[in-house]
Amino acid sequence: MTRKPQLLLLAGLLVAALAVVAAVGLQNPAGPTQVSAAESVPMAAAAKTSFPGLAAATEDEPDLTGLHTTAPIKGQIVQVAGPFDDRFVLKDLAFDGSAAMGTVTVTNDVSDLLELQVLAGFYDEKGALLVTDRIIRDMRSEGQNHPRSAEEREEFIIRVPPEFQGKAVSAAVGVPVLVNE
């Protein structure tokens, strides 16, 4: 091929490209549209996250799904999974028919324990959940100023509500809220 036909071919391709750009521009006279980042990422490529034991947010206090799926036997107290299980150990768990009790020992690098919730579920003889109750310790509002220790320990007692006394024969506990500095 000689130089002249090459230039004609190149000019023809340039004219065709300009015609395509003009045709697209005429179809959308407002100009290019903005596409949000969420619209540009295919759903299959989007990040998916989940946290075991973390219940869906509601306007009520946080819940632990394990309380609704476990069925402890008579006289038993069990721990259910929660979102902070890697930051504490439940020790000395006991259920005497009227209360669930134990100690939360925070094991991560603790400066100050600011807030703690322990949630208990109480069950009938068939292992069906009767009721839940919780203790909430907000150390910020309680004005607790204690020196930092290698471990933070908080004892808890969660009483069976009066209307379920004598019906509750087992318990399950977990920690849905744990805040420390």
UniProtKB/TrEMBL annotation:
Keywords for this entry? Signal
Which interval of the chain is the signal sequence?
1-22
Its name, as the record gives it, is Secreted protein
